[in-house]
Specification:
Blueprint lengths: L8 H4 L2 H14 L3 H12 L6 H9 L3 H19 L2 E11 L25 H14 L3 E6 L8 H13 L9 E5 L5 H9 L5 E2 L7 H7 L8 H5 L1 H7 L5 E4 L7 H19 L5 E3 L20 H14 L4 E4 L5 H7 L6 E3 L33 H10 L3 E3 L3 H4 L4 H9 L7 H15 L3 H15 L5 H15 L8
Parallel strand pairs: 1-2, 1-8, 1-9, 2-3, 4-5, 5-6, 6-7, 7-8
Bound molecules: S-adenosylmethionine.
Length: 475
């Protein structure tokens, strides 16, 4: 039985409710009166329920889809402006005891190179990431209680935050590790993590169990209830996601929104971010064996619908997607992208380009292989502000406090100047001459858009101080 506030996975992600939602969406996808009313409702910026959004996802009328795109673009502009936050993943260890059939880290894969970074190797990786200009990382690890216990993750986080190379610093560490206990989430919170990210992979229980045949991740309820435990452990920024391609996208979309509704109903705060990964080729993984791959058009539609359904939730696109696809979905509501990512363990300090006997530790093939400088330059040319901001979590603006900022549309007086100041740091310390020129012009132009005169004046002063060598200002 569906119950949004239940703590049981099968009740807040009820299969019955999803099936009823899909039937309702099919029945109403050509009901133009309802479709128009839903688009009108979305214009109020209060979001849409899983049932409402599912009708729009099922609707195939081109002019309505274009209207949804326009609205998604407008909502992105209103809440996120033209900023795009930058991050990079850092793979700590690919030891894993699970049997996920889509992931090359699965236990039975004897072909892949197994690696776990020592603290000294982490220093090298983080130094390489700082030297590119990164300030925000997402750490990734396989699930392996013997090789990657929580103590290892905590020690690694401490190491990462302690490294100060030249003007570099990692100011926010997000964590993407397997579902764990309330006690461990509390330890992660105390270690000063930003967002706890865990992809559901699929909300379809039966498929989930088949796709995770062995290991602790087989337990659907334990995995699905992880965000509740994370919140109980004090982490109020959590990141959801499904791995598109495993199951029917319409099922996943309804499940994703139900999960967001559940967190909002129980904890008063929805997910901080939603990621939209699609399955990629990897060591012993051929994505074509999964039947539910989605086209770029459907992918774009999903991004736009997430934007209008949960306007206050950030959306993340990784380098799994090509430059062309990223360019297509950026205006539809994406707020964060990774740049210059390596998905191998130790890949930043020692790239695995020349693989011996084709043995790699990579998790999946990266489509967008540009350098960070190229990505930053590209964003600026497209009219975006690449942002290296980490201010909110460091100012304690997490969970509902961040949402309040967003809902009150204070972004132009806060996130916008923070983006400009962190971009200025990047331009001073890491950019190529071409990117630097483009960036400085952008900053000049964008400073004028800050509405509050006092904030504008302070931002001008800080930008000047950064040119003089000072660092780490924030509102
Ligand atoms: N091991 C952790 C867990 O159990 O959740 C998370 C870390 S894993 C390195 C990060 C994510 O990569 C997974 O949640 C999965 O969605 C994604 N992934 C795995 N195999 C993939 C593939 N072949 N292509 C694209 N993404 C993949």
């Amino acid at each position: 039985m569906y119950n949004v506030t239940s703590k049981k996975a099968e009740e807040f992600i009820s299969d019955e409710e999803i099936q009823a939602t899909l039937a309702y969406a099919d029945k109403n996808k050509d009901n133009m009166e309802l479709v128009d009313a839903l688009i009108e409702k979305a214009k109020e910026r209060k979001g849409l329920t899983h049932r409402e959004a599912s009708v729009l996802l099922a609707c195939e009328h081109e002019e309505k889809i274009q209207e949804i795109y326009r609205l998604a673009e407008q909502i992105k502009k209103d809440y996120y402006g033209n900023r795009i936050v930058m991050f990079a993943p850092l793979y700590l260890s690919n030891y894993c005891v699970n049997g996920c059939v889509y992931c090359p880290y699965h236990m039975k894969n004897k072909h892949i190179a197994r690696k776990k970074l020592t603290q000294e190797e982490i220093v090298k990786e983080v130094t390489a990431l700082q030297d590119m200009g990164h300030k925000r990382l997402a750490i990734e690890a396989g699930e392996d209680p013997a090789n990657n216990p929580i103590e290892y993750i905590l020690e690694s986080i401490k190491t990462i935050y302690s490294i100060k190379h030249k003007n570099g610093a990692i100011r926010r560490v997000n964590v993407n590790i397997a579902a764990t206990t309330v006690e461990n989430y509390r330890k992660l919170k105390d270690a000063g993590i930003g967002t706890y990210i865990l992809f559901q992979e699929t909300y379809h229980r039966e498929s989930y169990e088949k796709l995770h045949p062995t290991g602790p991740k087989h337990d659907y309820a334990y995995h699905t209830e992880a965000m509740d435990r994370a919140m109980e452990g004090g982490i109020d920024d959590v990141g959801l996601g499904v791995l598109f391609g495993l199951e029917m996208y319409r099922y996943e979309f309804a499940g994703l929104l139900m999960h967001a509704e559940h967190l909002e109903a129980v904890f008063g705060v929805g997910p901080h971010t939603i990621s939209v990964p699609r399955i990629k080729r990897a060591d012993d993984i051929d994505p074509s064996v999964f039947d539910n791959g989605i086209s770029d058009e459907i992918f774009a539609k999903l991004c736009a619908l997430i934007r209008i359904s949960v306007p206050y939730t950030g959306m993340i696109i990784s380098t799994r997607e090509s430059q062309a696809v990223r360019e297509k979905v950026l205006p539809l509501g994406v707020s964060q992208i990774s740049g210059a990512s390596k998905t191998s363990v130790g890949g930043y300090a020692a790239p695995e380009e020349e693989r011996e006997n084709d043995i790699t530790s990579e998790q999946f093939d990266v489509s967008d292989q540009r350098t960070l400088d190229e990505v930053v330059g590209w964003l600026i040319k497209l009219g975006y502000i690449p942002s290296f901001c980490t201010a909110c979590y460091r100012e304690g603006r997490t969970g509902d406090r961040f949402m309040t900022l967003c809902k009150n549309m204070q972004i132009l007086n806060c996130c916008h100047p923070n983006a400009l100041m962190t971009l200025k740091e990047y331009l001073e310390d890491y950019a190529s001459e071409e990117t630097r020129k483009l960036g400085l012009k952008l900053i000049e132009r964008e400073l004028e858009r800050i509405p509050n005169p006092k904030v504008k004046q302070t931002a001008y002063e800080h930008i000047h101080d950064i040119a003089e060598g000072k660092r780490d200002f924030r509102f």
